[in-house]
Amino acid sequence: MHFVAKVLPILTMPTPIHRVETDQPYICLTFDDGPIAETSRSWLELLAQTDSRVTFFDLGKNVLAEPELAKEVHAAGHEIGNHTMSHPHLPELSFNAVRAELTECQQLFSDAFGAAPTVFRAPFGEHSDYVWTVLKELGLPSILGRGHDDWSPNATVEGITENYTKGVQAGDIFILHTWQTKTLAAMPEMIRRYHAQGFQLVTISELLAAGQPVYV
After folding, report:
1. How many domains does one find in the chain?
2. For residues 169-187, b (16+ Cβ closer than 10 Å) or e, as one string?
3. Nearest Cα residue to 172 out of 141, 190, 150, 147
4. In a domain, 177, yes or no
5. Residue 156 — left, alpha, or beta (φ > 0 → left; ψ -120 to 50 → alpha)?
6. Is 27 helix (H, G, I), strand (E, B) or coil?
7. This prediction's pTM
8. Do 32 and 180 touch, CB atoms closer than 8 A?
9. Is residue 6 part of a domain?
10. Is residue 3 a contact partner of residue 105, using CB atoms and an 8 Å limit?
11. DSSP-derived 3-state class of residue 139
């Protein structure tokens, strides 16, 4: 499958999606920067044990480095989103460089998984008019959500558990990281708490299909 893109004029586009207004008991966990050789299979085992589906916002360079692992994640039923090829600060790039980061990732994932991603997350949550122009070209929504700094060197298992399980509402989207072993250690208790509150873990696309997006 080949991805063909068109160059459109630069336009200021809507802000990222922060959550979804829904009457279903759905929440979405999202994991950035994968696939990661040291942690991704552990994530797959844990998510399978808890009958959970999530969205992984993967990097093109990591899919190139771990192609079979990437296919395992996709085959397990999880959604793969576009997180660019190399995780740059997009506002610092030219239009052509932004376009390459996004479109090359779309093409790579289309070739690897048989379908191009339908969701995108900007590295560092950073956007520019160039980014919005290319997203419109690709038909991709930009997804943010609730982040509680699981990436921080100062993060703890206990802190991650508490911060990501308090005040949860249906339609919430959480930003986490595939490489963070402390998040992996926290996740069994996090999922137990989500289930105890009656929530079901679904992918971004499933969540969007169940309600109306709320923008930042």
Report:
1. 1
2. ebbbbbbbbbbbebbbebb
3. 147
4. yes
5. beta
6. strand
7. 0.92
8. no
9. no
10. no
11. coil
pLDDT of residue 157: 98
Residue at token pair 């916002």: 57
Helices (H), the chain: 40-49, 60-65, 67-75, 95-113, 129-138, 157-163, 181-196, 204-209
Distances from the Cα of 90 to the Cαs of 26, 102, 151, in angstroms? 31, 10, 19
> In the structure encoding, which two tokens stand for residue 5, read together?
């893109």
Q: Does residue 11 form part of some domain?
A: no
DSSP letter assigned to residue 165: T
Which of 83, 71, 76, 142 is closest to 111 using CA atoms? Answer: 71
Cα 152–chain centre separation: 18
Q: Which two tokens stand for residue 161?
A: 């558990």
Domain that holds residue 139: 17-215
What tokens were used for 123? Answer: 């590295």
* pLDDT in the model for residue 9: 38
pLDDT tier at 8, thresholds 50, 70, 90: very low
**CA 117 from centre of chain:** 10
